[in-house]
Amino acid sequence: MKVGLFITCVNDMLYPGTGIAVTRVLERLGHTVEFPLGQTCCGQMHANSGYAELAKPIAEQYVRVFDGFDAIVAPSGSCVAMVRDQYPHLVPGSADVVARTYELSELLVDVLGVTDTGARFPHRVTYHPTCHGLRLLHLGDKPLQLLRAVRDIELVELEGAQECCGFGGTFALKNSGVSTAMLEDKCANIRRTGADLVVAADNSCLTHIGGGLSRLRAGIRALHYAEVLAA
Question: What is the pTM for the complete model shown?
Answer without folding.
Answer: 0.94
